[in-house]
Sequence to fold (678 residues):
Amino acid sequence: MKTVRAVQYGVGPIGAELVKYCLKKRGIEFVGAADIDPNKIGKDLGEAAGVEKIGVPITNDSKKLLTKTKPDIVLHSTGSYLEAVKSQLLEIMKSGADIVSTCEELSYPFLKSPAIAKALDRAARRNKVTLLGTGVNPGFVMDTLVLTSTGVCQEVKSIKVRRIQDASYRRLPFQKKIGAGLTPDEFRAKVAEGTIKHVGFPESIAMIASGLGWKLDKIEERIEPKLAEKSVASQYLKVEAGQVAGVDQTASGIVNGEDAIALNLQAYLGCPDPRESIIIDGRPPIDLTIKGGVHGDLATAAVVVNSIPRVLTSDPGLKTMKDLPVPSGWFAEVHNFLH
Amino acid sequence: MKTVRAVQYGVGPIGAELVKYCLKKRGIEFVGAADIDPNKIGKDLGEAAGVEKIGVPITNDSKKLLTKTKPDIVLHSTGSYLEAVKSQLLEIMKSGADIVSTCEELSYPFLKSPAIAKALDRAARRNKVTLLGTGVNPGFVMDTLVLTSTGVCQEVKSIKVRRIQDASYRRLPFQKKIGAGLTPDEFRAKVAEGTIKHVGFPESIAMIASGLGWKLDKIEERIEPKLAEKSVASQYLKVEAGQVAGVDQTASGIVNGEDAIALNLQAYLGCPDPRESIIIDGRPPIDLTIKGGVHGDLATAAVVVNSIPRVLTSDPGLKTMKDLPVPSGWFAEVHNFLH
Fold:
């Protein structure tokens, strides 16, 4: 059996996680890597990902790399926004490679970016390749797992999903990203400039609505600071009572003035009960909790790499998680999953 | 758009639930029904299902019905065992209809009945139809939802699934089926004669193992009585302390002498904390609970009827839940889901 040949496109923190997990999968080998960061160009992909050298240098000439190596699959992790990554995706598809991307807006692009979605789908079909955007969120806990849970329902009146995370043990950049340690005014300024924001809620809501066949009137988003009730500290930061411990972001898919789908993400220092929660007001009702939550970085890499066989065996086109077979881990030689 | 034409094959208690839910779906209509029960032949399908008359008589001549009506989809619910329903499935497929069946052994037949599975798959491909066995269990909570949950894992060491049900509010036949009110000796006699037994554990375990790419050494099943610690009562039955309150059934998929996959089903009177629980010892670990559990009868009908669009749009062949796209409810005209 021929090895599945992979290229890593984007070797930032998420790309590094993808590489580390993918190196453990049997039957897949990296044949190249691309990044534009001058500090990474020429470096070995394994070393850049924080593991052993694998003899694959990182290049900034992605076009040449793709033309030369003609990979089967490209793991793409360069950005959250479609407008910014669109030309990269088109370039990769032109080389004939399937793509799994962590671009949040790609996870369900049909609502916010129908023109780009159409162009990407057309390019995928023309090049006979499959394009998927996924990750843990968007991609799994607040959309795919929610839709799956409705599989046992005869009626669904409304859906409430909560992701409650304790940021105390995350890296400093994450703690800063959620505004920990800021004053409420500083937090609101960062929200206004767009630097405190989870990207992907409208995509998750639109995927759920599409799966259920619901027409939403609108989607609304709101970002609030989660204030510390008493002083809390992490390894890196101390937050006094009344200051910002983290973020509390909500998005609602609204029908007739009511929240039909409500997603809430809280990530803050000192969270006492981290969890994922899916509440379906339906027949039967569903009250699902994942105690402790799902580890974000590990899970994103898992969802992306675990999707590879489903993407390789899919019909061509721009797909979303709900179009592909049931997601699952796989722990044998990859060819066992390519029939 | 043409209406999806359905036949109900088997109008027992489960069939009745399928009919009741299916009648609510837009774009699907029943064009016939078959059952061998003399008390049902000639009766109206809607009335037999406990709702309004729909002008569809139940016949015992399934062959003629299928030849005459040429349905798009048959909802099949006549039995748990493949050997008993095989010829029915072949007859239906010959008529060119796709099938969703509640036959427990059909949910993943490749391990226990590879020859029948092969014959059914061949017949499905020859007739260009799709055949799926599903339900809430097997079909969803102890297999499909488990596999889905592993989608966020980079490693899975072992999986423990528990379905803990309070039988107090179920129908009398169900309470009898789980042995409530028997002495421990009477219970063991019924286990020995095969009348107390959930069918589907080996299928659920085999589906999980196949999805993960695990090779199991063997699958073991064990059925124990759940004894009442104090006297408990339902609307129908009183159980004294020390008598049987219900069933405690376990199945293990074993690798190197260890339980790699352990499924446990408890259904008994007076259960204090009904729930579904999926514990994955993995990286990351997953500790998922559905509080209160998933209502069995409603959910089986939901899973079966919700599968119709995925079956109608699938490639031909014998499929299992893990082969089809992510399950979900759908609540608009069926043609919205048939692209």
Remarks:
- The mean pLDDT of chain A is 97.
